[in-house]
Write a structure and sequence with these properties.
Radius of gyration: 20 Å
Number of domains: 2
Order of helices and strands: EEEHHEEHEEEEEEHHEEH
CATH topology of the largest domain: Pseudouridine synthase
CATH architecture of the largest domain: 2-Layer Sandwich
Oligomer: single chain
CATH class of the largest domain: Alpha Beta
Shape: globular
Strand content: 25-35%
Amino acid sequence: MSAVIKLSSPATREFWEIPVLFEDEHWLALNKPPCLLTSPDRCAPDRPNLMQLLHQAISEGKPWTRERGLSYLMNAHRLDFETSGVILLAKTKPMLVALANLFGSEKPVRTYLALVQGAPEQESFEVEAPLAPHPARPGLMHIDRNHGKKAKTLFEVAEKFTGYTLLQCRPLTGRPHQIRVHLQSVHLPIAGDEPYRGRPLLLSYLKRNYRLKNDRIERPLISTAALHAERLEIHHPVTGQPVSMTAEWPKDLRVAVKYLRRYAGPAQSDEVVE
């Protein structure tokens, strides 16, 4: 079977080639690209979403759906619009129920990477703060200690740069925007996450004597939230065996980290980063 699923949206003229990370008769794991909704969003009804595109492909009998004999596919969890990485889809309703029960516990180990502004005081730390929808900003979340739902995230430094830090993030609960809000709350906003005070990452912030050619506007290295669901570890509900799935970083995150290592890392050089 194909290791890549091809989806397109004629309405927006967008096209995606989405890598398959793991598959058996019960589920399908994909590497969701950034800037693609997981499912319909009432705040952005005209944006394409992964589940709509998948269901449309099944109904149209696209080759990749026929070779798998797919008639059902449903996401067991969600990733934010700007978040890339591992997403797990059930091929049957009983499997969806089993996976939903697992994701309702702390048993699946979800590891995200976040590139944040600033540096934490400790190499590892945790944030436990209840979350609720923001009362004045539809679609966003905030900390609400009176009415919010329990939320806890563990963080560990993966790599340090001048002015930025790459963090491993492990959410123990699955609230919307959980990692983003928790990091903002400790003054470590995710780069490019403007709704939560993260500014776009520009090369001019990193490179001394940066010069932009005349009549050019500098494009950010990362203009959307630098958050990636890198790894998911889960015990298979049918076989009981541990399954680990890892998603390659999106291109803009790879490029941004290369430039950070060159211009804001402990060992800087004059090598040009391609």
